Amino acid sequence: MTKNVPEGDFLYTGAKVKIEDKDVKKKDKKILEPDLTSLLRPKPNMSILGIRPKIWIYNITRNAKKGPLKWIKKYGEPPVLFSSVKVDYNRDIVSNRLENKGFFVANTSADTTIHGKKASLTYLATAGPRYLINTVNFTTDSSDLGKAVHATAEESQLKIGDSYDLDVIKVERERIDSRLKEQGFYYFSPENLIIQVDSTTADHKVDLYMNIKDATTEKAKDIYKINNIFIYPNFKLRDTVQGKSPAAVKYKDFYVIDRTNMFKPAVFERTMFFYKGDTYNRADHNLSLSRLTSLGTFKFVKNQFIESDTTQKALDAYYYLTPMAKKSIRAEITGRTNSANFTGSEFTLSWRNRNAFRGAELLTLSAYVATDVQVSGNNSGDGIFRYGTEANLSIPRFLTPFKLNTSSAYIPRTKIVLGYDRLERQSSYKLNSFRTSLGYTWKESLEKEHQLTVLGVTYVHAPTVTDAYKLLAATNSTYRNAIEDQFIIGPNYNFNYTNTARAYKKNTFYFNANLDMSANLLGLIQGAKEENEKKLFGTPYSQYVRGELDFRHYYKLGLNSQWASRLIMGYGEAYGNSRSLPFVKQFFIGGTNSLRAFRARSLGPGIYRDPAQDSNDTISADQSGDIKLEFNTEFRPKLFSIVRGALFLDAGNIWLLNNDTNRSGAKFTKDFMKELAVGTGAGVRIDASILILRLDLAFPLRKPWLPEGERWVFDEINFGNKEWRKDNLVLNLAIGYPF
């Protein structure tokens, strides 16, 4: 590592800051020392377990002119030399940082440690007493600006008794500026505020005085209103940038300059939060930009405010919008896995029109063809061939008989879907599925989203069933449910909350709630009962209520590790016209994204065990239930680079609401906790951000179908036994995290 270090110099291996002061609390040292160390320059060469790979690459490729060594040369770096370290500069940086944190008498020295051809530094900081805030005073004048600044005092981040901190003072100036921007002070900036510090009035305490700088311009002191609003929905550089264009069309409070008449002016009424005469405020400014962006029609959205040349203390607003290509065709080939352990590929061809009816509507026509094979599970090797088509119209507003608006930064959408799917399951059956729906999607905020399907209709019909499957269906309702004609008609509501995008938070959460209903009103009107089955277009319709909750918690452990947990609870009840939930609405458990120690859809319900699970001669049915309870937890440490590990524990089961003569022990009872399946395992994930490949190896700890008292199987675990591995080890290969 040191062979290219010049004589008389040393390889610089890094530095640290150590605070030697009994007056500084231990918890404060833990925060300050890493913070101060991060300021030191230069940074040493990267080290992995004491080895510096980039120096090694540099050494072996230094004189490379061609071949493989020249290709990897760019990954090396020369050794960082001790002579390049500016010790005095770093000492000043540490002392200055401590002063900014309230240690006004801080002093720093440096100590060098040399081992052979390597050298490191330790900066010893004597912090001294930390100064606290004694008083906070907003000493402003009686002008509009002065009053506005003084009105922010109650929410000040500067608290009496807190430590002096320059970073908090900067945040306070930004906070005040944000408040003023909501009140029309367009030209004001944080630099117009000064906080004066007096440390002479009390021992180790400071008095703070918030003032407006004398050099503040008159513009910064004035409140501005909105004058004219110009919107260029098909902006080109040749268009007039300022002033009302001759081609402008006045629509209510806006001037729309659209030379090609590409958009209806009403589109912008739903996106703009500014109106002529309004006082400028940053919130409406940002909301308007967010709504224009969320339309999904424009490639670029730019905005400019210019002082009006006709009205004093007024701003003309300009919005320059560059649309995306109106029409596009997209082809996709994807590899996929799902919770039923099916692995396969799918080809999708889609055509898009981003402005179908001049109202920024998104019309998508798509068709797909796919093939899947169950690589492990109930019917390993059983193949599925699928194809279908869909028309999807997304309208950027609530399409309702009455006017309905939202104040969110996100455009609400009305969605109309019409689709057809064909599923051909080798050696079993073929299904036709027709579906249509009308619904709404809207977001309260970045974290909260609502989806309401006012009316969804699904019709499923099996035109072809193999003789072998018919024999099984004749005696077992589990098989029969999968091929029954299904007519589902009703609403669906879904609420989703997540703050997982806030990567800086230690605790983040995900919550999803879904309520699904079918034919509740129709069944009531027709008086549908089990003994008096009603039909729609010659097919009995399903009548049920179904709900599902999915709660997840993510806990950061250091910078690169995470503990993730999930709880799923589901309940569905068929009534009136139905004896059971439609097959597609029932709950399943097991597989790559569920209980990984159990094959997909092979577990349950309750303590029931399908005999076909242990036979290769019989088609095994997917086991389903009316009630679901599932818990998963896993530790996700970063191993190195993009490779992460996992240690996990999964538990759960499904149950039926009523007895089933073909599935003994499947009904939900008060002893349900004794019927939980438990599995554990370990995994590796290649997290390349755009693609996550996952490999999990799991095995059961508790098998609910065994006699009570024998369900925990710790004593049977034997990795050296071939038969045990064959019966118990489950390898899950998947794309993406399980949750």
From TrEMBL:
Membrane is among the record's keywords: yes
- Give one Pfam family: Omp85
Keywords (A to Z) from UniProt: Cell outer membrane, Membrane, Signal, Transmembrane
Primary place of residence?
Answer: membrane
Any one GO CC term of this protein is: outer membrane
* Every Bacterial surface antigen (D15) domain range: 388-714
Keyword Transmembrane listed? The answer is: yes
Subcellular location, record wording? Membrane
Domain of life, per UniProt, equals: Bacteria
Q: Which PANTHER family match?
A: SORTING AND ASSEMBLY MACHINERY SAMM50 PROTEIN FAMILY MEMBER (PTHR12815), TRANSLOCATION AND ASSEMBLY MODULE SUBUNIT TAMA (PTHR12815:SF47)
| Protein name, entry field | Surface antigen (D15)
Tell me what organism the protein belongs to. Answer: Arcticibacter svalbardensis MN12-7
